[in-house]
Specification:
Elements (H helix, E strand, L loop, with lengths): L6 E9 L2 H11 L3 H10 L10 E6 L2 E6 L5 H17 L4 E13 L2 E4 H14 L4 E3 L1 H8 L4 H7 L2 E4 L2 E4 L7 H19 L3 H13 L1
Parallel strand pairs: 4-6
Antiparallel strand pairs: 1-3, 1-4, 2-3, 4-5, 6-8, 7-8
Helix pairs in contact: 2-3
């Protein structure tokens, strides 16, 4: 029996406030949220399908990268996706892992996806994409860690590594998008401390 499956980088992304936005559409008899999701997901169509694959189901997006040497590029992809959603007034959070993965037709068997989901559920908490510390350790044991550091794509806070979406060129745009999203949610946030903390965390860490 074959047990040696290929390894991939996998990311699980969760759209925050999904039920709230569905409720807004229902109350307004609109499809605004659907249209925002559609536009945000268009960012995925520009990536090389030979290396990256994705599927979107309800409020969850699953992405995988089959090339071990493309991790920094994979982080850049995830950064661009997070900004694309922010531009559409949507927060996402996620987890990234590296492990065995098998997909054939409708069947998916993946330790990588399971681990990424665990990280997203237990560690991400806020609008950020957390990277498994084992990936960082893997880079530390190779000669590639300097490339990862120089990419400026990973931050660390309280021993958690997560993707840095800010750079010298986009910080103002990201700020304005975050402010627009806060203004959109402001009335709702007055009654919901957990949801408010997500906005507060982004402001503090930025």
């Amino acid at each position: 029996m074959r047990t040696n499956l290929p390894y991939v980088y996998a990311a699980i992304l969760d759209v925050l406030g999904y039920r709230q936005r569905l409720e807004e559409d229902r109350n307004k008899a609109s499809l605004d949220f659907k249209d925002e999701l559609h536009r945000a997901l268009q960012s995925l169509n520009t990536f090389n399908e030979a290396t990256y694959s994705y599927q979107a189901i309800s409020d969850t997006i699953i992405l995988t990268c089959s090339d071990r040497d493309n991790f920094i590029e994979f982080l850049q992809v995830l950064k661009e996706i997070m900004i694309a959603f922010l531009k559409e007034n949507l927060f996402i959070r996620g987890g990234v892992a590296y492990s065995q993965h098998f997909k054939s037709g409708q069947i998916t068997y993946s330790h990588a996806i399971a681990k990424a989901h665990e990280i997203e559920s237990n560690m991400a908490l806020y609008p950020r994409i957390v990277v498994d510390h084992n990936i960082i350790e893997m880079f530390k044991s190779s000669n590639d860690i300097s490339d990862l550091i120089n990419s400026n794509l990973v931050c660390i806070l309280n021993s958690a590594y997560f993707i840095n979406i800010l750079d010298e060129y986009n910080w103002r745009e990201v700020y304005l998008c975050a402010r627009k999203l806060y203004e959109h949610d402001k009335e709702f946030l007055l009654k919901h401390e957990v949801e408010f903390s997500k906005h507060d965390w982004l402001i503090v860490t930025s």
